Fold:
Amino acid sequence: AQSVTQLGSHVSVSEGALVLLRCNYSSSVPPYLFWYVQYPNQGLQLLLKYTTGATLVKGINGFEAEFKKSETSFHLTKPSAHMSDAAEYFCAVMKGNAGKSTFGDGTTLTVKP
Amino acid sequence: GAGVSQSPSNKVTEKGKDVELRCDPISGHTALYWYRQSLGQGLEFLIYFQGNSAPDKSGLPSDRFSAERTGGSVSTLTIQRTQQEDSAVYLCASSQGQLPSYEQYFGPGTRLTVT
Structure:
């Protein structure tokens, strides 16, 4: 079985500060990893994904994440938060080519002016 | 182009009634997924269709839940004898295939409230 743990259901940062959203996974096989963002009253949108190759993955809106196999982590970062980054963020893992993904419970990011 | 659409956007039903939720995937996408998002929780996988293969129903929570996909396009999720714990947002997604390299595109969801 695979699972995803997002540490911190709510994260608050000041505008311009570093954003760090944590995600740890458990998987019996090398996983494929995803971060999605859900803005208020909108559907989920893919931010970035790791499938193979480079472990540091860059996504949209200045976000990036690093796959660390030894730590079973895929934390999401952004050097400088913008007000528009306020949203809910979901980490997800896909096992092999199974198609379906397992999602974490989400982290709500608040950006203070 | 058009994205994934879902209808209705909101549905309020009485406990014990049956409901049908509809998903129109992006044209040409062979994979279609249903998820459920309960308040304050992540997405829970329900069922997955890929082309003409038998669907993966491993996430359906009970036999009151069923889904079909007609003609490899539109999908309907049916919940029979609804219960209050079925209240959630039901999300549909589609992709070009099941490989992780293919992005899942999500619809806006149907918010189901069982009273």
